[in-house]
Design a protein that fits this description.
binds zinc ion; seven-stranded mixed β-sheet; six-stranded parallel β-sheet; Quinone Oxidoreductase, Chain A, domain 1; single chain; alpha/beta; globular; binds NADP nicotinamide-adenine-dinucleotide phosphate; 11 helices; Rossmann fold
């Protein structure tokens, strides 16, 4: 067992505090990673605050992990000491079910093992990336290409893959009109990725405050959803809408922005249900869909795509003692565009 420094929430209603957590001994198929950076995903906040249901505490969140391999188990073949690697939202799955065999481990029929707050194979509760080290089975560790800094790579492990996967699945590319709702951590990656795939990209943000940024990131146009005229002007305009908003929105009015056969894919995961007026679907043969992160193979593909296209995340690196402030800023939509914890400040 290895005892390592971490930041964890003692309960759903308390701020995160410095603490220590245990990491298992490095098994034959495991790698030990010295974490350099960990992104702060809105899902960390939903989880530790109990939005998605009760948790086991103390809980160290963090599933956007970038670091260096410092030890490998005797059977490890995919990684070596010194490799620059990443770990995203999963650290294991059954590997045998139909979905795992397709490389869609995030949809494992027996339930994938989340990087934090999940019951691990040995019965312990997994602890996430707001820590200095992590031990992970080699198959759930990806390689970070040279050319992407570890700090700006960290958010790709969740925000990157969560937007890359549906953009690919729903065919974003030349000739396709893609809208991204919410310009936060996921949203800014969706804009960059959809633009790099060749789609025409529109941002749907609450206001025009971040318009300059949105256009710089690769958007062709930018609209404020607080202005009712936006919904009239853009009626029927898009083939695909990726909704990254972390709070409930009026989905039916967004569905009206889809062209015939268009799809609105929800990646945002608010605690509350999102009611839909079926007429907004049947009047244009439209789809309302959802998507969760991406498989391990696709995560590697996304990282390689980012390296090839010179993409990474726009980040604000913070020391660990600013994690709670960063949470408040994320909740206030005051993030440009991902907070990343410098793990060397974890104590
Ligand atoms: P984030 O950085 O906080 O971005 C969310 C954005 O949504 C905000 O920046 C804001 O953009 C917009 N927004 C927030 N509150 C709003 C409101 N009340 N009304 C309208 N717009 C609002 O969060 P994130 O880390 O990108 O995560 C976004 C959501 O995706 C979260 O619910 C998270 O749990 C979920 N998620 C899902 C997956 C998955 O696998 N499906 C993976 C990761 C995260 P503007 O200021 O531009 O309006
Ligand atoms: Zn996440
Ligand atoms: Zn499975």
């Amino acid at each position: 067992m290895l005892t390592v420094n971490a930041y964890a929430a003692p309960s759903a209603s308390e701020a995160l505090v410095p603490t220590t957590i245990e990491r298992r001994d490095v098994g034959a198929h495991d790698v030990l990673i010295e974490i350099k950076y960990a992104g702060i995903c809105h899902s960390d906040i939903h989880t530790v605050r109990g939005d998605w249901g009760p948790q086991s505490y103390p809980l160290a969140p963090g599933h956007e992990i970038a670091g260096i391999v410092t030890e490998i188990g005797s059977e490890v073949t995919r990684h070596k000491v010194g490799d620059r690697v990443g770990v995203g939202c999963m650290v294991n799955s059954c590997r045998e079910c139909e979905n795992c065999r397709k490389g869609e481990e995030q949809y494992c029929l027996k339930g994938m093992t989340g990087t934090y707050g999940a019951v691990d194979r040995d019965g312990t509760i997994t602890q996430g990336g707001y820590s200095t080290h992590v031990v992970v089975t080699e198959d759930f560790v990806v390689q970070i290409p040279e050319g992407i800094g570890l700090d700006a790579a960290a958010p790709l492990l969740c925000a990157g893959i969560t937007t890359y996967s549906p953009l690919r699945h729903w065919g974003a590319g030349p000739g396709k009109k893609v809208a991204v709702a919410g310009l936060g951590g996921l949203g800014h990656m969706a804009v960059k990725l959809a633009h790099a795939m060749g789609a025409e990209v529109t941002v749907l943000s609450q206001s025009l405050k971040k318009m300059e940024d949105g256009l710089r990131l690769g958007a062709d146009s930018y609209y404020a959803t607080s202005n009712p005229a936006t919904f009239e002007e853009l009626a029927g305009a898009f083939d695909l809408i990726i909704n990254t908003v972390s709070a409930p929105i009026d989905i039916s009015s967004y569905l009206q922005l889809l062209a015939l056969d268009g799809a609105l894919v929800n990646v945002g995961a608010p605690a509350e249900p999102l009611p839909v007026n079926v007429f907004s679907l049947i009047t244009g043969r439209r789809s309302f869909a959802g998507s969760a992160i991406g498989g391990i193979r696709e995560t590697q593909e996304m990282l390689d795509f980012c390296a090839e296209h010179g993409l990474d995340a726009e980040i604000e690196v913070i020391p660990a003692d600013k994690i709670n402030d960063a949470y408040e800023r994320v909740l206030a939509s005051d993030v440009r565009y991902r907070f990343v914890i410098d793990a060397s400040t974890l104590g």
